[in-house]
Fold this protein.
Amino acid sequence: MGKKSKNKKKQQSSLDSNTQQSGVNGQAKMGKNEYEAEIFRLQVELVKLQDWVKATNARIVIIFEGRDAAGKGGMIKRILERVSPRIFRVVALPAPTDRQKTQLPAQRYIEQLPAGGEVVIFDRSWYNRAGVEYVMGFCTEEEHREFLRDCPIFEGFLVSQGIILLKYWLEVSEREQHKRFLARIEDPSKRWKLSPMDLESHRRWYDYSRARDAMLAATDTAASPWYIVPSDDKKRARLNCIAHMLSSIPYEEIRYTPPKLPPRQKPKGYVEPKRKHRTVPQHW
């Protein structure tokens, strides 16, 4: 066997090994080129959705929930990458103030609901009451039961008012969450993502599992169902979720008429001045 054939065989063996190790649930790792092509295609559809939302004054609410490190941030980032922040708006509220703690669980989120021609994406939502607040003891058992009882009624009201409501739970495995937490500790650019609350959520895996199960059992209704997004493979999770989101909204492509660029005005004696302002250092 020639040297070239041996090298080729060695490279293929290494490729097969890497593919097997990087796959999730027996699936081969999705290549970067394939992923980028598919995500771009879906993002073009999101732009079409945006045009339809603006033209029809539609109101859309998309909720992303899941454990810490499930991939919510990356999912939302890809959705927003090529659309207008004037149409697509993200709501990621901080911990409630002392005053807000005395309000109804959904009260501070209600004022964030979309007006006509808006898509609001909740990076965590009123479901904090069913998750972190319940697990960490920030609400009582009775308040938790009341939320699970009343939440379907509240969401039914939103839907009855014409709001399109989509709820996604990003499901990450125990092993993958552990891996992502370690990566956040080791990577200086990701350390900010790991809060004391995240560390506690790592410890309380099964408490969060029970809270998730109770939440899904009580609030997965015909009017506002939950959709589970397996998210150990981030690329496939993003593609599958965005594709489902688009298929769940009855948007139509709005005909686009390309504008004509007007000719530039004549300078009429204008001369570019010699700049005396400070310029950033040109290292690249």
